[in-house]
Amino acid sequence: MLVIHAEILIQPEHVENFLQLADPFVNASQAEEGNIRYTLMVDLHQSNLFTMVEEWESQEALRAHEQSAHFLKHINDTKDMAAAPLKVKVYEVMQLPVV
Q1: Closest by alpha carbon to 82, among 22, 18, 6, 21?
Q2: Beta-ladder partners of 56
Q3: pLDDT at 85 over 90
Q4: Measured between alpha carbons, how far is 28 from 35 in angstroms, rounded to an integer?
Q5: Looking at residues 9-20, what average pLDDT do you find?
Q6: Which of 12, 49, 83, 98 could pair covalently with 43 via S-S, beta carbons 3.0-4.6 A apart?
């Protein structure tokens, strides 16, 4: 399983529009095969700082997501709203047996 944390800093004047665009994007991403979780979170102290938390069953599922029409559209529609470059962290999760 892969876990992604994508930190997105949006220009304050674009937050409302970003959220309107994020809703259908998140819904479409959650419906994708191989998606376990897809959640947009907002920072409690900085209302224009968001973290997309994603969980994917496999690298293949993540690649398919990154090539999907809704992903490419969302990136294109929101690229000029960013106040800083996107920061992405990818974690590979190992499942340990329960003792």
Answers
A1: 18
A2: 2, 35
A3: yes
A4: 10
A5: 98
A6: 49
